[in-house]
Specification:
Largest sheet: 3 strands, parallel
CATH superfamily: 5'-nuclease
CATH topology: Rossmann fold
Distance between the termini: 23 Å
Shape: globular
Strand content: 5-15%
Helix content: 40-55%
Number of domains: 1
CATH class: Alpha Beta
CATH architecture: 3-Layer(aba) Sandwich
Radius of gyration: 15 Å
Amino acid sequence: MLIDTNVLIRTTQRRHAQYEVVRRAVEWLPQQGNRLHIVPQNLVEMWVVATRPVAQNGPGLTVDQAASEIDWVKDHFKLLPDGPTIYPQWEALVREHGVSGKPAHDARLVAAMKVHGLTSILTFDRTGFTRFPGITPVHPGSVLPTAPFH
């Protein structure tokens, strides 16, 4: 399972309303036999968001703080490599599905998923990935047991 950047960034925002559900989901999924993956694009996107000023709807982390958060993410999730087959897969996806604008970033994540044989993505985006057959978006809250989790 790939982790979408919108979930990764919540791991850095301990006061955010979605932090607790993310923390629980990324702890629970591996206990259930799910391997959680990231790709370099996640780290680039995470850096952009993490260092965005608070006035521009970001957490406003310093470069050193963002680097520390990136290191934590790399230590906790399997980083899959970029490779020469991701771009052609991305180009085919955006052409086939008529993707334009910002959703092209999601298409690149899907391209990496296809190249690496992943079929699900842990994301808060319930609709952005549904245009791609064979890709299942999974909301972090939907994977948690109903009983309180410790």
